[in-house]
Amino acid sequence: MSEKSLFPIIVNQSHLVNNGLNNQYAYKFPAGSIELKDASLAIGSVQMYYSWFSITAAYGNNTFSLKVPANAGTTTIAITIPDGNYSIVDLNNLIQYTLIANNLYLIDSNGNNVYYIELITSPTTYSVQLNTFLIPTVLPAGWSMGNAGTGAWVLPTITRCPQLVVAANAFRDIIGFAAGSWPAVDTAASTTNSTSIPTVSPVSSIIIGSSITNNRFSIPTSAIYAFTPSGVPFGGLIESNPNEYSFCKVNDGNYTEIVITFYDGDWQPLLIKDTQLLVNLLLKM
Fold first, then answer.
1. Which of 38, 82, 93, 247 is packed most tightly, with the most Cβ within 10 A?
2. How many CB atoms lie within 10 A of CB 19?
3. Which residues touch 269 (CB under 8 Å, ≥6 apart)?
4. Domains of the chain by range and CATH?
């Protein structure tokens, strides 16, 4: 049997398929149709930017609410998070921004904004921590309302805490809190840790599938490679170079192109923002 030859195929931004997701690239063979028999395909290397968002409307993890005591009742604010890549610090900043926009904060005697709810990370418990504080019924000496004009906050008649309202959507996975109002009781200051392991970034690994391979040990059978953005900051360049090439069988047939598709670890389409990439495919035939 003659020794097989190895042919590198470079896939880059020029091969982007305009499917609205930026996750699919089609390399067309320059000679037109090519017959592949007893061939195999592997990934030689991948270079691409970490540019997919952690929170999007498509993921269904972009909404939650705040319930803030006011007068004899509460004010509920529905929050829709703009598509983006967020840390817990970013989400806490969004909460503060929302409280400011709705005049639901106080200013202390030193001119500092005071908020009565916060999200922080708790590395020792590997959780997200929700802290809530009792809102006074009257202004402390030297303090002022965040906005004393139209739409000013009316302090509660009974000292209570704000609540984070988590709907039955994928935002639960981001912060690790089950659906419901947190804390369950708003009459005392509290610290509550997430009820499950938070998944602040739902995309921890990337899978590449190809249109011509048959990996019989994978479902779906198109999988040819997987890698992780671990250690790369958002916007940074991911460089993945396998120590050994893992060749997958190509289905015998005639082909005009190879289409590679990027997925997240759950086989959902990866929503890529920056389409600048370079993938080195190795075709053995």
1. 247
2. 10
3. 21, 23, 261, 262, 263
4. 6-52+203-284 (2.60.120.1100), 63-193 (no CATH)
Contacts 24+ apart (CB under 8 A), 14-19: 16/275, 17/259
pLDDT digits (tens, 9 = 90+) for 6-64: 999 999 999 999 999 999 999 999 988 899 999 999 999 999 999 999 999 989 999 99
* Cα distance between residue 154 and residue 148, in whole Å: 10
Please, where are the H alpha helices in the chain?
88-101, 171-175
Report pLDDT digits (tens) over 153-207.
999 999 999 999 999 999 999 999 999 999 999 999 999 999 999 998 888 899 9
DSSP 216-231: TTSSSTTEEEEE--TT
Q: How far apart are CA 155 and CA 158, in angstroms?
A: 9
- Give the Cα separation of 282 and 255 in Å (integer): 16
d(CA 51, CA 30): 30
DSSP 8-state symbol, 241:
-
Q: Enter the pTM of the model.
A: 0.85
Q: How far apart are CA 9 and CA 283, in angstroms?
A: 7
Residues forming a β-bridge with 95: none
